[in-house]
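Thread: Newbie trying to understand structure tokens

Hi all, I'm a second-year student working on a class project, and my supervisor (Dr. K.) asked me to get a predicted structure for one chain before our next meeting. I've only ever worked with sequences, so writing a 3D structure as a token string is new to me. If someone could post the tokens and maybe explain what I'm looking at, I'd be very grateful. Here's the chain:
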Amino acid sequence: MVSFGKKLKECREAKGINQSELAKALNTNHSIIGKYERDEVKPTIDVVKKLADALDTTVGYLLGETKQSNFLKDTAMVKRLNDLNTLPDKDKEYILYALDGLIKSAKIKAL
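---
Reply by user tm_fold:
Sure, no problem. This is what the structure looks like when written as tokens:
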């Protein structure tokens, strides 16, 4: 499993910024960013949220919960999933069945 520090460094480099620039965005010192990247210090969840926002990724990605850096970054999609989750099980089942069919059809079209 890739560590938090490695994921943080990967995202920072992908964004094309150095530790000082990231530190400035978080109103902290660049040395703390280096400590996070070397896994010497673990940030609080509030700091992880700020890091994710500054690096256009998600907390889940930085913490190793997802493999895609922008997974569920789309707030409209998150809202839809939350709405779906509040429905009765039978309704969810029907909607997911229809959605699976649409996704399969779109994948076939893309070929």
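A couple of things are worth pointing out once you decode it. The chain has a mean pLDDT of 89. Helices lie at 4-15, 19-26, 30-37, 45-54, 59-62, 75-85, 89-110. Feel free to ask follow-ups in this thread.
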